[in-house]
Amino acid sequence: MSSLNRILLxxxxxxxxxxxxxxxxxxxxIKDFKQQSGLAEDFGLRRAVYLGRLFNxxxxxxxxxxxxxxxxxxxxxxxxxxxxxGDGNSNFDSALAQGRMFDTGIRITNRTQNxxxxxxxxGDPSNTPxxxxxxxxxxxxxxxxxxxxxLDFWVVGTTNSGFTIPSTVAGNAANxxxxxxxSTAVPEPSSMLLAGAALCISAYRLRIKKRSSAS
Amino acid sequence: xxxPWLAHVLAIFLGLISLGGDLLAGIATSTxxxxxxxxxxxxxxxxxxxxxxxxxxxxxxxGLNFIKARIRLWVQLPxxxxxxxxxxxxxxxxxxxxxxxxxxxxxxxxTDIRISYNLIESGPGVVExxxxxxxxxxxxxxxxxxxxxxxxxxxxxxWLVSDxxxxxxxxxxxxxxxxxxxxxxxxxxxxxxxxxxxxVPEPSANLIFGSLGLLLISWNRTCRRHKSSAFQKGKIESCxx
Lengths: 215, 241
Hints:
Chain A is of the alpha+beta class.
């Protein structure tokens, strides 16, 4: 192996190690529930229903991102509606435009369209792994929690869509429940790029060398 | 009649029957599981089939006028569903799939029963609402009679219809999370609805009763006049029984 190839390989492996070997990584589960507010907004752009505010007083601690989550929502007539988390308990459109609300990636659809149902996403926690949150979104949501010591949750669909989120069901509180797995580890994008580039260049050079040896 | 006052009482009674048909009015009642079906309506609104109700009319519908109706149901409404925006109750033939078409052809009829967000009980959830009796017009009565008559079991469908609102739910069942035991438990509640139809005999029947009453009164007066005249002449007679 040429010296240049060796150097590239070392750079790549080093970057990989800093990226994928979190020596002091910690994880924690936080969970909370509350009665749904049922308050809806539709200003022509989208229909947004405010679920409520959770994790009041929860501090950031050493954690940096939400890694995965479970969501349980009481809802009717939903078809692929979105779950948002962030900072803002009114005027969702404005909060979204200001970059204060984040799409968790979770989508909610009723099992049947003629009942008000409790929907577990991605499924029953006893037999379903949690929903994996994209790294940038997970960091953003956790940053919002760190800045405000609470998180607001909304369910959003197209304008004039008919999904409904009750505050009560036959006099009983309709609750929603959120559980996050949060972590101290955050994969660094620059390290990943460096690792990938170095390894690719090294592999390419080795291949060219083999071809010239063979000919 | 030996007791003239009895004739008057009977005449008054028959008169009351003819004038105040409510004394012989009936209320047909049906309670069913809510259906939960939702469709679009007029392109921007929504229609919700509350349920299919069946009624018992052992002597048929002939001679009956439907004068009022009321309904109890479980529903979630948006805050703006008040006044003219409150959805209305529509009666339709069983098996209706296109309510807009049914309203045009006469297979369905709008009533004046409105389910308002403010109607007790109100709130941003699935709540139980009971309307008071609302009058039915003659046209609504005729349409309702035709709808009931079209089904061997005197069944009809009741729909909750809004021309503009879609965020309405009339669920068949409702679930909620209960944390009273310290861990989340899903509780399921079935929802039912009750429809009451108030009816009275047709006017032709009232005419017969009223005529009988008047006839009785006039006959009794004639008899008493005759009796009075006979008494003056020294002939004591009693009015025929």
